[in-house]
Specification:
about 525 residues, Beta-Lactamase, Heat Shock Protein 90, 5-stranded antiparallel sheet, 5-stranded mixed sheet, binds adenosine-5'-diphosphate, binds magnesium ion
Length: about 525
């Protein structure tokens, strides 16, 4: 492209030559030299101060030279005045042009400055925007992890959710968890909890990892176990302390980072992540992960606490069941001894006394009345002893089974309390072993005791039936009705005991009450 300045200069030269030619033909008296001022505006268009000076100087020289080259004419004072006015005009215009040029250059400089500032600001703004985006992505990740860690879901699921969130955030395809098996252990067991973007691609790595536990200092997880902070390996295949890389030729991963799950100062697990490319440590990510590790530590802590509670509940339950079993055995033993030994002795005593009584048929003294009184007493005692033995453990339960035992107990209850006992038969023979029968029988007895103590009932209805794997006994009274608060009250130890007994045999006790319409207790026990 032709330089614009060149065109203006060329134009100026042509104009200058043209005017000079004109000047040399027109006589001196004519004020044609004024035309030289045109050179200055032309130079002004070059936007270069230097050319304004040059044009003004050229104009000046040509004006002066013209005096000598023009044909003579006019008065000398006219000639001098004309030429002086020309020079004056040339320089006034030149000065004006120079001022204007200076001004616009200043403006240009200010403009350029402004432009530069704006550009710098834009760059800064973009930078802080990116920072902000990064920051808010971290905040979101933090939030996601906190939500997952506090949700009432299994620890496994919490960890899975977190793995996938972190992998998505860092854009890494592999995430895996190690957990210490218990509170005292200092070894990391590989959990089968993974995030794998492409499971078949990382199959070898997964298999090796799942077979490799880590102790303190061993491999990436072991390093985290010791340092208790995030660790980063730029390329695991070149790392001297990465045992898994030595097992297989190509494990498919390169960069790795891991961070601890912490409860206080104890590492209870490690999360590790891998990418397929070697990568420099990302300090921001590591910082955020350190905090995520504390959040997840809490989830582990909660899981442990829940396991503790469950274990101690289970122990208590077993203890209760064992105590009940021992109590039942004791009752059976005492019942047998009372019945067999004590009742036997009393029967012998009774026999002896009747013999003595017979021998004294003619005796008129008060001795005879005494023996008869003793006989009566012994008789009553025998009844009492038998009743005690019966109460302790009705032999009918062992001899004739649950159905008969319940019938018998119901009739006894009716005799003792005046509450009507109706039993609905039609359930066929109940086939149940002695332990399960005993459990149902004891729950039934506790139910009767409750009816007597609390229900103010007039009638009791008992229904028993057996369905495939389950035996059900339903006891319905027509009393005041139990409330749901009473059923679930922690102080209702009788009901709790009933439930625990049933539970020992994979069964349950269901209680329902309606105000002023009575209570129904349903006992379900698995037959085996
Ligand atoms: N058949 C019933 N009718 C009405 N209320 C009942 C009945 N059985 C139990 N309850 C209520 O349930 C409560 C808890 O019963 P339970 O656990 O056996 O404790 P306890 O008999 O020692 O009070 C009783 O205090 C009573 O208020
Ligand atoms: Mg009770």
């Amino acid at each position: 492209m032709i330089n614009k300045n060149f065109i203006y200069i060329l134009l100026a030269v042509i104009v200058a030559v043209g005017i000079l030619l004109l000047d040399t033909t027109v006589p001196l008296g004519v004020a044609d030299s004024i035309l030289y001022i045109i050179l200055v505006p032309i130079a002004f268009f070059t936007k270069n101060k230097k050319f304004i000076y040059i044009s003004a100087i050229a104009g000046t020289l040509l004006t002066v030279t013209g005096i000598f080259l023009s044909p003579p004419g006019g008065e000398i004072w006219q000639v001098i005045t004309n030429r002086s006015l020309t020079l004056f005009a040339i320089w006034v215009i030149a000065i004006l042009c120079l001022l204007e040029r200076g001004q616009s250059e200043k403006m240009k400089a200010i403009h350029a400055d402004l432009e530069k500032n704006i550009q710098k600001r834009t760059v800064d703004l973009n930078k802080s925007n990116t920072e902000l985006e990064k920051e808010s992505a971290y905040v979101q990740l933090h939030k996601d992890v906190a939500i997952a860690a506090n949700e009432k879901i299994e620890l496994q699921d919490t960890l899975k959710v977190c793995l996938s969130k972190i992998c998505a955030h860092a854009n890494w395809p592999v995430g895996h968890v190690y957990l210490v098996p218990n509170q005292t252990s200092n070894w990391l067991e590989p959990a089968k909890i993974w995030f794998l973007e492409n499971p078949s691609r990382f199959d070898t790595f997964r298999k090796i990892s799942e077979a490799t536990p880590f102790g303190p200092g061993m491999g990436l997880p072991g390093r985290v176990l010791v340092s208790k902070q995030p660790e980063w390996i730029i390329d695991v295949t070149k790392d001297t302390n990465f045992p898994r890389a030595k097992v297989a030729e190509n494990i498919g991963v390169k960069a790795g980072f891991a961070f601890p799950l912490l409860i206080g100062k104890k590492v209870v697990g490690v999360m590790e992540f891998f990418s397929v490319e070697a990568e420099e440590p990302n300090r921001d990510l590591m910082k955020v992960m350190a905090e995520v590790g504390i959040q997840l530590g809490r989830a582990v802590e909660r899981q442990w606490a829940e396991e503790d509670i469950q274990n101690s509940n289970e122990r208590l339950r077993r203890l209760y069941q064992r105590l009940e079993m021992i109590r039942e055995e004791e009752r059976t033993r005492i019942a047998r001894e009372v019945h067999d030994e004590l009742a036997q002795i009393l029967s012998t005593l009774k026999l002896e006394l009747s013999l003595l009584d017979k021998k004294m048929t003619d005796d008129k003294s008060s001795l005879r009345t005494d023996t008869q009184m003793m006989l009566l007493l012994v008789n009553n005692t025998i009844q009492t002893v038998k009743r005690i033995a019966m109460d302790l453990r009705p032999p009918i339960l062992d001899d004739l089974g649950l159905h008969e035992a319940i019938q018998w107990q119901g009739r006894e209850f009716e005799k003792r309390t005046g509450i009507n006992f109706i039993s609905e038969v039609g359930f066929g023979n109940i086939e149940l072993d002695i332990e399960r029968s005993t459990a149902i029988f004891r729950i039934f007895q506790e139910t009767l005791t409750n009816i007597l103590r609390h229900a103010k009932a007039k009638n009791i209805n008992v229904l028993m039936h057996q369905e495939d794997a389950m035996v059900t006994v339903k006891i319905k009274d027509d009393g005041i009705g139990i409330t749901s608060d009473q059923i679930s009250d922690n102080k209702s130890l009788g009901i709790l005991g009933m439930r625990e007994r049933a539970r020992a045999w994979k069964g349950d006790v269901n209680i329902q009450g309606t105000h002023d319409q009575g209570t129904t207790v349903t006992i379900n026990i698995q037959r085996n």
